[in-house]
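User: quick one, fold this
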Amino acid sequence: MKTARGRFSGLLRWYGRHQRKLPWRDHPDPYRVWLSELMLQQTQVQTVTPYFERFIEHLPDVDAVANATEQEVLTLWSGLGYYRRARSFHAAAKTIAFELGGRFPEDVAGWLRLPGVGRYTAGAIVSIAFGVRAPILDGNVARVLSRVCEVHGNPRKGESKRRLWELATEILPDRSISEFNQALMELGALVCVPRNPRCVICPLRDTCAAKRLGLEQTLPELPPPKKSVRVTLAAAVIEEKGKLLVYRREGVELMKNMWEFPEAECRDGEDPRAALAREAREKYGLDLTPGRELAKVKHSIMNRRIDLRAYAAKLESRPPRIGKRKWVSPEELLNLPTSSMIHKVLGKLNPDG
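Assistant:
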């Protein structure tokens, strides 16, 4: 019977042959590793890559982030979602630049003192950027360990999670820590995938407990996903002299400080135009009349399945100065922090733009 570490003896050789060429791997300094790990949370590599490259082009180091405004950081993050990541990244960059003299922590404990950095992210940064012998446990790694070492139970909590962290530490080699941890994540992303794992090409197939026991489709034992909630939103596209009226969202953590059209969430059975007129008065102090439908888009945020309808709207009186608002051109709006839902609407309004 092989030890836990022995089961992974073929992993580095496989990684040397099959690793993907990704922009954050070219120069794995702590800034680039940190940024990539935050962007990759809940987001696919193919989605992250252009955002990462654009972010690095505009803010190439931690000092640049620290000296940028939150609005600049959010604008570069616009479309990736989970905007708390961007706000935490900005706050942590300020701590590094202004309180730590621009020096990055080189151990897990130091990173855990920064906003928005948890145990996995801290371990990934110090192991990949500094070669520190620190374990990692993201969704990909948890899936690999659950299958190879036959760990039952919910990998996200309790005894199962504790055991997976224990295994993630036990299997670390004495050398090549950076490559090993990246190889674990790469195996989970490319081969040991959630559904229909590609066991026939897996370098660990001969030592994998799940493969031997026929449990590769059963492990890990994840809880059922949250039931999706359908939401209908209505948005007012108010145009005057080529400018659009937008508001900055305040006091809502999920989309805080993001710019949006005046919008309303429809109650059960409520007509979208009626909802928009009602909430425009209550939320924005606007007296408006929704007109023709300009666009319909579908969007998802976590378990919310959103149907958004955008309407041309006419102001019946001048808008009061409630909240942060401005008139912007469509081009200017794209250079403000906005959600990908707003980008979808703009794309429908100007399909050639």
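User: anything notable?
Assistant: The longest strand covers residues 288-301.
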